[in-house]
Amino acid sequence: MAGATGSAPPHSVSGRPDRRWACSQAPPDGAGILMQIGIIGITKSGKTTVFNALIRSTSAQGAGQVNLGVAKVRDPRLDKLTAMFNPRREVFAEVRYVDIPGAPEGLGKSQGIGGEYLNALQRADALLHVVRAFGDPAIPHINGSVDPYRDVAAMSMELAFSDLAIIERRFTRLEADLKGSKAQERERARREGALLERLRDGLAQDVPLRQQELSTEEQKSLSNYQFLTAKPLFIIFNLGEEQLAESARIEAEMRQRLFKPGIQVAALCGKLEEDLAQMKPEEEEEFRRSLEAGEPAANRVIRLSYELVGLVSFFTVGPDECRAWTIPVGTPAVKAAGQVHSDIERGFIRAEVVAYDDLLRCGSLPDARRQGLLRLEGKTYTVKDGDIINFLFNV
């Protein structure tokens, strides 16, 4: 496995950890975190078009079914590391998108998202709400007019309804559990009931759970519920091509009106991005320059999603592969090692670390070592975005 060394491997000395930056010293059970994003939106919002643009495909159709797709996290740092080490393969991190059917008419007046669609969204790390901002007489809006801020508010209600339904079901269960329970169990149930009542009151006042004040212990106790309004929310206004010149202004207005902790915003043209994503890279780049279309939506959405969810990347390098790994911000080295392989976490000794910019400036690992930029770190070292790491372990 990339960047990992084990006990007494070939060319090690007296059982000491091998110090090579090898890519085949550990069995491949690690794949890192695969971030999952649930895509939501009303019917005819262009939601599935945006989904196709993000996974660079046209395979998904808006036909009332769940669409699944995976996008590679295109990180130019990994490309440069691959050019430096010339490995047998380059392995990007990935993001999984789950596109559920558009919410029906009556959005914001139902009892929320339920069934298999709710289950799909509950497994997501974040929600991406595609909001229609384009006008097209051939595609009538289900509410009769295009008003993206109205649709944002309506979807917020839909998500809140889903959470309120979960809370009510849990209240019913708690009442049943209280009958015949022991004193300690009754006290625990009362505390949980008081917390749920507080959350319910906040939702009734249009305050999503991500914006309600919760202690670390309370957040932990609620993790199994997978409330939708507790998840980070990425709002995308889907523009028409005629609005591209105004995209910066629209996005600035979005940020002013919608941006809050746990919320990210962006404006893009889903149809144009879907079309450009089907081109060869050199053709796409040329068209983007001519249209002043900027960074590909697939790349920008992933980058902003990482910021929203709180994820960073570290790299492992060697002759077999150069690979990017995804971890939460603040992850200690020993837990990052576990992303590569559980054995490496279990037998962790230390990590050899060099910052990406330092390695690029030095040109090679031996030069980074000679300049004192390749350092040894222990279990509690907090991995930084862009770290190149070799894990030394013994099992």
What does this 3D model show about the protein?
By secondary structure, this protein is an alpha/beta fold. The chain has a domain at 4-10 and 21-32 and 312-393: Beta-grasp domain (Ubiquitin-like (UB roll), Roll), CATH 3.10.20.30. It is 40% helix and 19% strand. The chain is built from 14 helices and 13 strands. The protein has helices at residues 47-55, 76-85, 115-122, 148-178, 183-204, 216-222, 247-258, 270-277, 281-291, 297-309, 333-340, 342-346, 356-362, 365-370, and strands at residues 4-5, 35-40, 67-72, 89-91, 94-99, 126-132, 233-238, 263-268, 311-316, 321-328, 348-355, 375-377, 387-393. The strands form 3 sheets. Strands 3-5-2-6-7-8 form a 6-stranded mixed beta sheet, sandwiched between helices. Strand 9 (311-316) and strand 10 form a beta hairpin. Helix 4 (148-178) runs antiparallel to helix 5. It is flat. The chain starts with a strand and ends with a strand. Residues 6-29 have low confidence and may be disordered.
